[in-house]
Hints:
With about 300 residues, this protein is of the alpha/beta class. About 35% of the residues lie in helices and about 20% in strands. The strands form 5 sheets. The protein has a 7-stranded parallel β-sheet, with helices on both faces. The chain has a 3-stranded mixed β-sheet with strand order 9-8-12. The protein starts with 8 loop residues before the first strand and ends in a 7-residue tail after the last helix.
Amino acid sequence: MATSISGARILVTGITSEVARPVAEALAKENEVIGAARFKDPAAREPLHDVGIRTARMDLVRGDLDDLPAEVDYVLHFAVVKSDKWNVALDGNLGGPLSLMERYAGSRAFLHVSSTAVYQPNGHHEFAEDDPLGDSHRNYYLPTYSITKIGAEGAVRWGARRYGIPTTIARLNVPYGDWGGWPFIQFQLAEGGMDVAVHPDAPSEFHPIHTDDIVATVPRLLEIADVPPTVVNWGGDERVSVEEWCAYLTELTGVQLNCVASENSLASVALDLTRMHELVGHTTVPWREGFRRMVETQRPDLLRA
Length: 305
């Protein structure tokens, strides 16, 4: 189901994140890409300009979109507000996408990057898109995250109908790449002598998805956009546990990643990827290959032959 986009004007929000930036860089080769963020540090704009991405200031919490272009063909909404202040998280994560949808009511498609954190924890069940939603992140130091992510999906569903914008809601699992990601953060904790927290209901299973596969599937996610929105899980084909990838990182580097059960950790979010496979396709980067590349890039000095 390979597809591509060319000759379009594309807005990518959350451009300073390591998830959004590679997507924007890839699209900028054949499109006009505007990368939006708060840019509290103006110097953060220069590396983006160097790879052909225009930049624009945007504050979703305040509703400040004045610096954005008047019209775009596609909106890729990666931005997320992580705050323990409910008014800030609600304004940014619910009001933000609605402000964008109102501004770009004439766009061809809107991709809202949600999270599999919206699912109600249910052991080792494989979550399909119609499964119950619930609060999964309250014990993980992010009390507003799951609830405002769920709320954001509701806002985007309303916005798609209100403004007639073909929309996809993609529930992202565990993004990672040569730049790092959650697994590399766990590795850094272990380097510092800290344990890796895992859920007591072992193993803690997820579907890590490499940047290469995120980039490759974005055009198709836009292509399947519809009204009401198309909702789809977005993760790597392989179901992998934190315990398993920690053991592999230890094998690769010699750094001992010690997994310890803790209630302040994320429960498994295994996925039913049937809809993704039917509508979007399969991922191509095996997780072991992706993790090895991550170590090769971030800590080549520790990589064992």
